[in-house]
Amino acid sequence: NEVVPTKDQIISFLRNGKHATQVIISLIAFDGFRFNVIADLRVKDFPELRITENNDVIFEKIPTIVKVRKELSKNGKAYQTFLIEAGCMIVKNSLKVRMKKGETLNSESLIVPTECEKTTVRQRAKAIARRLNTVFEKVEYGSRPYSLKNFFATALLNSGLEQNLQTFYMGHTGPVQNVYSVQRQQPTEQIEQMRKTFKEKIEPHLVPQEGNVDASV
Question: What is the rounded distance in angstroms from the CA atom of residue 73 to the CA atom of residue 61?
Fold first, then answer.
């Protein structure tokens, strides 16, 4: 009975999740990340994110770059992708709520903190999965959390991009991995072309609605 969620269902998940859970949903649905990636994704992995002295969160460019370190990548190779504006606003809101509660954030701060931050990535990943399952149970959604990853994969399929680029944006190994390798400094023009491609070809298939989604209390 596994099905790919619709945009309306993505909206429902977001509206029924707390701020941190919204971040989890957006990182899977808008970027196809696995739980293990999210469990150790840190502020430093968003190189275009800046936290000001006044505790404001600014994305210098949107869609914003997200770098997945090789130790988090399933194939052991670092790669980068982009997070659309809707996802950036969700991350921004979550970080601001944490700072408002007194948390001090730095480059090593986890994007999604859990109650077991000092344990293994695998343990944190399980905690993140439980949060998502709580939302699914609340809205009586029967498919697995992995279906959110399928939502992103479907967006890539519908984008019309060549298969090599789809493979790269999913973080899988392919010929284009060498062209867009993050092991070396990429020319600015190359990065901007990737950003433009993500925004024009992929984002339209991801955006559930305009504006922010209020978090569940």
Answer: 24
The answer to whether the beta carbons of residues 169 and 81 sit under 8 Å apart is yes
In angstroms, rounded to a whole number, what is the distance separating the alpha carbons of residues 212 and 215? Answer: 9
In terms of phi and psi (left: phi > 0; alpha: psi -120 to 50; beta: otherwise), the region of 74 is alpha
Global pTM value: 0.87
Give the count of alpha carbons within 13 A of 13, CB side only: 31
Pairwise CA distance, residues 113 & 44, whole Å? 14
User: Model confidence over 136-192: pLDDT tens digits?
Assistant: 999 999 888 888 989 998 998 898 888 777 877 777 655 555 444 444 456 778 889
Structure tokens at 193: 């072309």
Residues written for the chain: 217
Residues 81, 172 contacting (CB under 8 angstroms): no
Residue in this structure with the two tokens 């789809």, named with its chain if needed = 166
- Report which residue type is found at 161: L
Tokens (6 digits) for 125: 């990943």
Element (H, E) at 94: helix 85-100
Q: Are the CB atoms for 108 and 44 separated by under 8 Å?
A: yes
As beta bridge partners, residue 82 has 65
